[in-house]
Fold this protein.
Amino acid sequence: MVGSAPNTDVRLDRVTKRFGDFTAVDDLSLEIRQGEFFSLLGPSGCGKTTTLRMIGGFEQVTAGSVFIGEREVTGLPAFRRDANTVFQSYALFPHLDVFENVAFGLRRRKVSTDDIRQQVEGMLKLVELPDYGRRKPSQLSGGQQQRIALARALVNHPRVLLLDEPLGALDLKLRKQMQVELKRIQGEIGITFIFVTHDQDEAMTMSDRIAVMRNGRIEQLGTPEQLYETPRTEFVAGFLGVSNLLDAEVAVRGERFIEAHLSDGTRLRAPADGLDGTRLVRIGVRPEKLRVLPVTDAAEPHDSDSNLLEGTVLDASYIGVSTQYLVETADGTRLTVYAQNLETSGANEGLADGQRVRLAWKPQHTFVIARNTGDEGDDQAKEDETKDHA
Amino acid sequence: MHDESSIERAIARALRPGRRLSRRRFLRDSGRGAIVAGSALSLPAILAACGIGPAGSTAGSAAPSASNKVVGGGEPAGTLNFANWPLYIDQDDNGKSETLRMFTEATGIEVNYDEKIEDNQSFFGIIQPALAAGEDTGYDLMVITDWLVGNMLRLGFLEEFDVATSVPNFVANAAPKYHDPVYDPDNRHSVPWQSGLTAMAYNPALVSEEITSLKQLFDPAFIEKYSGKIGMFTEMRDTMNLTLLYLGVDPAKATVADAERARDVLMAQAPYVRGYYGNDFAQGLADGSLAITMAWSGDIFQLQFDNPDLKLVVPEEGAILWVDNMTIPKGAQHPNDALAMMDFVYQPEIAAQITEYVNYICPVPAAQEVIRQHAEEADNQDDADYLNAVADSELVFPSEDMLSRTYSYKVLDEDEERQWNELFGEVVQG
Amino acid sequence: MGWLRRHRSIIPYLFLLPGGLWLIVFFVLPLLTTLSVSLQEGSLGSGYRLTFNFAIFPESIMRWNEQFVRSLQYGLIVTILTMLIGYPMAYTIAFRGGRYKSALLLLVIMPFFTSFIIRTISWKFILADEGFVLGTLKDWGVLDPSFRLLATPMAVISGITYNFLPFVVLPLYVALERIDPKLIEAANDLYATRRQAFLKVTLPLSMPGVFAASLLSFIPAVGDYLNAELLGSRQTTMIGNVIQRLFLVNNDYPQASALSLVLMVGILVSIFIYMRVLRGQELGT
Ligand SMILES: Nc1ncnc2c1ncn2[C@@H]1O[C@H](COP(=O)(O)OP(=O)(O)O)[C@@H](O)[C@H]1O
Ligand SMILES: [Mg+2]
């Protein structure tokens, strides 16, 4: 048995979970650091909840080991694990009042009555519901129940707090508010949070690191910025924000940059790191990184390093903070561009449908992913997910 | 209620395939009707509401419209409403009675045969309000046990008839014992339908001695070794009257003081008694739960087909001969039709036909020969054996000697009945 | 119709009408009749007169005191037994039944498909002293030849317990089935062992079911007489047997009615005390 590094709070080592023939979590390894706000992000059915439940002890692993702190907890029941959970439906005890709900864990651990009162009251203050102790859960709003569920878990000062889509049932405005609140609370008490969500925005705003899951595996793990700026797979690129992807072939491998050619011969440069020997690739760039230049304006000054690509404007829509263009390139690929409306009547004003333009962006804003076919289904899944959300 | 008894019949048939059944097996238990009736707590309340409404409350003053006219001698109306106990007449597999069919054929009288009577008391509860109000009960002929004949007679609830002219077959064919009974002198209101013995029975496999005396049922010194295997009856009249015989008292002459002594005997016996049974005593005797028990003759006759060792005992001290009688309730609409039925069943051929089916003591001795004849004519050995067993049984055709040792129930007046019930209640229910 | 529209508030009461009429005709009236009968004196033959004989109530209680106490005792024991047997059954079906839930529930109510009486009579067959079960065990020498089950308090209590078990399992099942399994996980998550989770979460949440189930077994058990009649002896006479005998054998309607009313009141008082105790307990947690 190998212990975890001292600053690791949770470690999964080659964990697999099968339900009958179906593999819900597939040989998954993961390390979560102390005090980290860590998110498991992915479309529904990808195994997030199952992973969380194996950490909490509600589900036993089919294979592999689970560590909380230095201790292996594989096989231990939930009540012997130093982790607490905020359930998606809150699961507050309907027969107990708020005070007793929050005190539940402390009472099981035989904390003295005085300490219990002090700690519960402190925790109710932390979640900003100090005078609600005598209410029954049914007398609380959804947001208030959510806070009580949080208090009930945190009052035990667990090593890790597990949250399974805790904001899923709240309306958008309240959700935004609670995101801030959760971050604040986590900052104040410094407990490791493992947060399950299928909402990419939520994961991006709150997390220190995110594991994007798909089909029971981790597709990519990193900070929100890493995942956004340099997605390693098409799935991640598509799941987090909008990306423009262009089929290309690697022509030149430099030390820092590679050069790849599109089918019409256009040369594009991109950072070389993270790319193995693959020749068939996709070049990706986020819509907000693109600048739209009129073709006619040959004299337009721009960084000679920039990648340049010609295309035709199919559609332009003004959406306040930005204008969104849809541009079609020579090989028929359609790219999305977000152009910030820096001036009320900017350079781009008057770009009409059908107009030829050039798109420019910096090579360091480019990412490269290996081209693999047969991923249509997952894009579909992602689309469903976004629809669900709307 | 009818559904329940047909369920029981079905079960009984399943348990005893092909055997004819006596009605007492299922319905002697006075509690049984109640079991069916009172399964909900509030039902007695409803029964009370039905049983004694305002009519019942005023009954005391409403003397029956006692025209002391004798019925009979007229033309039958062509309809007979006949209330009897379930399974107390010959029936084929479809429940059709050959006797009733022949009666209609011979007389042209249509019979509405209603197996309405599950228990004397509760049937009386049903017809009492109408009788008290001087109204027609809806029945022309009903079969009730001798003591109830006595009670209803006293209340003026039965029609009188001239047995010599109206029921000549009874005069000609009934055994002497059934003429002029204590409960109805000169048979002016009743003629027997069937009768039987309340005696005792035992299972020799569980009892080492021969049982001949009521002492062996009542004496604690004797029954101690059969503790928990002694059976008594839950019917007050059966048990109290048999106990009086043990005390050497003729029930007909018993006083309340005698009844109190009987209660004392029964209380002394109670610790050894397994239970106070209705017709389920037969099951107890058959399955070995009871070693020595009070018994009805018809049931023992039936049980002996399965276990020939079981013995019915007419004790040295005597036994009770109970008689179920055909009677005409006051105000009956078709008394001439009722008398026609009474006369009809006293033909030996008809009496034999009913007895072959119900197996109780037949009031017509000449039926014995008819049954022997039927046995000879039977087309298979099983039937012949069965019919011979019926004809030869002392439990169906008792000897004069046996009958001479039998007594009738005491006919209780209202006060006595209440007192006896109270005394007996202490015995069975503590 | 117009009138109804103008007096909308009356509509809910109209819905109560059929049930209300039913109750009046089949409960209130018989109850009043029972009361009136209990205050009469006389006999079936000579008729009854209302004499406001209130003394009958204390007299009845004194005379049948032993049977009253026994009935309440049996009722209590049966309620506890049905709960001890029925709760684990309902629990298992609700939480472990999986896709066999309906099949298992069907099994529970299966006995209802045959008549109550027939079932109890078959107990007599099965448990007869020399019957299939006891006879065999006696032949093997496992049991003393004098051993018996029938005609004992145990037989009566077992019979009632058996007959009312389904009435207990169904409400308990409904109550347990409604409990969100997440709540039990939450309890485990908050350091409650299985036992503690049961005691602190499952049990309190199933209390409405326990309450309903215990009434559904206690009330009919106290009033029951069939089991004592068929499986018992003189020493197991219950108040229902007494009422039954007074009513249908002795035709002593006043006495029987008085006892019925006393029984009703007795049960109501027991329930009242029970509710107080139960409420007290809930406050205690
Ligand atoms: N108890 C279970 N039995 C069978 N299949 C299950 C069970 N729990 C989860 N699954 C399946 O495992 C997969 C992953 O489930 P889950 O971890 O809940 O996904 P997520 O939380 O990512 O939406 C799903 O396909 C789900 O149907
Ligand atoms: Mg989930």
Observations:
- Residues 236-370 of chain A form a domain with the OB fold (Dihydrolipoamide Acetyltransferase, E2P) fold (CATH 2.40.50.100).
- The radius of gyration of chain A is 25 Å.
- The mean pLDDT of chain A is 87.
